[in-house]
Amino acid sequence: MVKHNSKAPKLRRSAEFFQYRFSLAISLSLYGTLICAQLAIILGTPFIIEPTVAYIDSLVFLAVVATVMAFAAYLTLLGRIGAARAGYATVIFPIFALLISTALEGYIWSAYAI
Q1: Which residue in 78, 83, 64, 60 sits closest to 21, CA to CA?
Q2: pTM, full prediction
Q3: C-alpha dihedral, 35 to 67 to 89 to 19, nearest 10°
Q4: Exposed site from 45, 74, 75, 104, fewest CB < 10 Å?
Q5: pLDDT tier at 8, thresholds 50, 70, 90
């Protein structure tokens, strides 16, 4: 049983706790980027950045919204409901991705996908 320390500061809903969670999400995203870059260099895969508006907009969206904001939201969920219950979310994420892909892209389900 975990003892609750009543003298500990309550940071759960404060701006400082959000800032901590957001900076943690950015830090972990940067670590992942560096690891992927090292792997690409080791495998000899070239870095190709197309100088088009669509490409740059997509890259910024994926970096900011789909990675940092989503990870910060997951850390918020983790803090609110705990690791055991938040673990169910990681099982549901691929199912929602398949549902969205089915609705927007016409994805056809297979036994392998399930």
Answers
A1: 78
A2: 0.48
A3: 100
A4: 104
A5: very low
